[in-house]
Each structure stands twice: as structure tokens, then as C-alpha cells.
Protein: PucR family transcriptional regulator ligand-binding domain-containing protein
Organism: Neobacillus citreus
Amino acid sequence: MITMREVLQFPELQKAVVHAGKGGLGRKVRWVHVMDTEDVGLFLEGGEFLLTCGQIWPQNKQAEERLLNSFLRNQISGILFATGRYLTGCPAAALEFGEKNSIPVIEVPYNVPFVKITEQIHLEIIDRHYKKMERSARVPIELRDKLQSSPSYSSICEILAGYLNCPVAITDTANQIYVKASPNVGERVNFQKCINTFIQNKQSQQLMNNAKTVYLSDNPLSYIMNVPIKIEGITRGALWLISPGQKVNEEFAYSLDFAADLLVDIVLNKQDLEARGRQLHLELLELLLENPETASIIIEERIQELGIEQQKHWLAGLILVGVNNLTSPLSIGMESIRDECKKWIDETEGLNGFCEIYKEQLVLFLASNLDKASIKQAVHHLQNNVRNTTAHTAPVVVLGEIKQHVLSFKESYQEAKALAPLVIHQSHSGGAYFSEQLKREMFLYGGLSPKKAMEFRNIILPKELLTEHGTTLYETLKCLALNNYNRDKVTKDLHIHLNTLRYRIKRIEQLFEESLTSPRCQFWIQVALDLESLATEYKESDLKNESEGDIAII
């Protein structure tokens, strides 16, 4: 197989510029296809590298969106635009599409011949496939079948070691053993020492550039065979076999060659999966949140395909950008937050899953075998990491309750969504919040629409506080509630004299017709402030849409 990164190394593409989707350069290219119709998506099977000069590129947004969606459904490998005649540059929608879905969007001058590009890539694909089939045919059927069903480096080493009755290992670029396996019976050898001896031998160093090498060590008597593992034209390590006291034959060499092919396939398949991972994440979230009951089998397949381990705890979360909202879900800020979440998930033992932008929100899909306390500790750690790496935002992490089955993920997600508007503005420095700790607030406010929340707040607060003339008194009331009605703290925060504060408190109490020291009064003030964040800041756009809808109905 060949990847987009390798395709760009061909002489015909030396003038190519990758404008978007660089994260998808590891995608596998199955075939090359020249676009000659807007319905090209009907003829795709997946893994195509598409070429176009832009002559038939859609001129309206709806048709363009349909075309790009067809590319996504079929998981193309990349798009190449030859610009200079029909297009002056890559279409903006294609660039956004490529960056969002890790699909490379490439530009070349119009005079670059498509026939040369397709010829070179197709010849390389066919040549590699033929050589791989040729090597496969020389391997014993029993061994070949076992190796082809192996999902990992370690299992390939174990199968080879058992079948050939020889120790087998994989080394990295520094010639250090990464994975090794030994047969159940046989003489034990110091594998690393043998490899080091081989490397130090001048003749061996010359042989290492060949497809396979054999070296005889006299003390103890052993034969060493080496096959370099080349990924995208770069040697990333080697597959080794040591045969103590037994001379190796052609079967050993063919088996090692074939196993090296499979090791490369594992790496490239992983690269391809990572590039396609965002779309798989979105598909899984859509299945879980839209129709989990009828899609349970597909959901399990998606989870397995993404390599997410089955755990006893499943929970959903949202990462909100706090008081400094980012303008776009594709902004650098949200991308960096998502990258930080991936790093956190990878590094947290007992936790796996992903973070993805779903319906313009950063959604956490988490599977864990940790207890509640450990999960909360890990989430606080995530919030601190995100805050430290994204200085322009005050992140708020909210999590729904822990569920015992993945099909209950939707319930956890809905709890996180209900919690989000209640806490997003509680702290200017962000924070981590858990629905199980705020059940009362969720019960009180969780079912309120922004419009109803605004109406409820306006009933609680005196009208005078909500006018322009009442702004100073209202801000003072907020500061009092935030500081638990501690007057000394309020005077420092507002930079006012104590007598000024006393005057303002007197005016506020007159408007409420009740003392601010009253627990009942303080309760309703807190309710009104909670409703304010729900109604005006977090859901301002929704409120606007609702108002427009009311007008349209009238």
C-alpha cells in the first residue's frame, strides 16, 4: 500500500503544496481518480486520491456541501486542485473540510499533467501489491494464515518464534529491542548482545542495507537474520531472527520478509485509522446520542474499530470555553484543547476514549475502570492542563454521571448539557464540575429554556435593578452574593468606601422590601443569579432564535 505522504514524493508532485489536512498524510491511497462530474461520490469505494482542475467544481454552497459530504462518506485519501485556469486557488469550503476531517487538500499549477500523476501512482500501487503477493506465496499456508490474522507486533513475533522455533525480535532505529518472543523450548540466547555484535561487525553493517541479511556468530554458534522495516521509504527498525545451532534456510527468509510486510501494514493501518478517527468519533457520538437502542451492534463495532477498551464505567463530558468564548469550532483554540485532551487520555492509566467537536461543542467520550474519586481527580488535572496551555480561555469541564453501560452514554451527555449553563460563569478561572454534586440545581433549572429562565429571573428581581439606572446596584448585589455578603470583601472588590456600600445595600433592601440578611431573600437572589447565566450569557444565541421564531409565527 502507499500513503499520501509517499505520493507527494513523486517527481510529478514536487510543485505540490499541502494547504490543509496535513494530519491525514498517513492515509492510504487505494487508487487515483480524476473528477469529471459533481456526482463523483456515487462511484467512489473509499481510499481514492481525487484530482480536479476545478472545471466541474460546484458554484453554489448546497451542491458543494453535498459533494464534500460524499467525499467524507467514502473516506477519500485526498484532493488535488490544479489551479490557474478554472480556479485561482483551493476552494475555501474544501480547505475547511480538509482541515476538519484530516483529508489533505493539495494545490499544483494547472500545467501539471494528471496522466503522469495517475500513471506513476498506479504503477507503484500495482508493483507493491504484486511483490507482496509474490512473497506471500512463498510462505507456508499455515504460517501465512496465522500471521495475517495477527493484530499486533507481539503476536507476529510469537507466531514466528513458535513456528520457526527461533527467538524473534523487533528493534527500533537505535537497534534496541522493542518486542521479542522466544519458542517454548530451545536454547536461550542473549538477544540484545547478539544484535549488538552483529551491528559492530563491519561486514554486517554493509549487509544491513540489503532486503535481508544473514550473519554467522562462532561463539556460541548461531545464525542471525535481519530484515529492515521501511515505512514510507524510511527505515524505522528491523525484524530479527536468531537460530542457535541451526542453519537458516529460504523458508526462514521468506517468512521474515512476509512478516515485515505485515508489520508495515499494522503501522500504516494505524496511521490511516488515526486520520479517519475524527469521522469515526463523530459517527459513534451520533449513534450514541441519536439512536443508541437500535444501533447497539454498530456501536460496539465502532468502539472496537477505534480501539477503545470495554470498561465498567462510561461517562460523557463537555469542555466549555468559559467567559472568553472562541468564535469558531474550527479555531486554533478548540483544536489545541482537543489535542490536550487526547494527550491527557493517552497518559491517564485506566482511562480511554476521545474528545471531539460535535455540534460546535467539545464532547468527552470516556471509558474507565477508575473509581469515582480517581476520575474526579483526573478531570481536575485535565482542567488545569487545558487552562495552562490555552491562555486565551478559561475552560470549564462538566461531566455527567458515571454509567455502567455504553448505551447509557446519552443520559450522561444530557446531564452534562443540563449542568453546563448553570456553572459556566461561576468562576472566571474556569473549573471542573460534576452533575452528581449539583443535582438540586439541575432539578431546579435543567428543564428551563433560556426564554423561560429570563422570565423567571425578571419575576424574582425588582424591575429597577434591571434598568440602566439600576446597573450599579445590581453589580453590587452580585458582588455581595459572590462574597457571601461579607461587606469588607465587597468594599475591596468594588474599591468603594464602607459608607457607600451601606447606602447601596439600603437602596437594594428598599427595592426588595426585605433585609439582605434574610435567608429567604438570599436564596431567591442566588436563584436569580443562577438564572442569569442560563438565560443571557450561555444561551444568548438560542434566545435570539426563539424570539425570531415567535415573530415568524405571529
Observations:
- DSSP finds 20 helices and 17 strands in the chain.
- The radius of gyration is 31 Å.
- The CA atoms of residues 24 and 274 lie 8 Å apart.
- The chain has four domains: 2-133, 141-268, 308-445, 450-553.
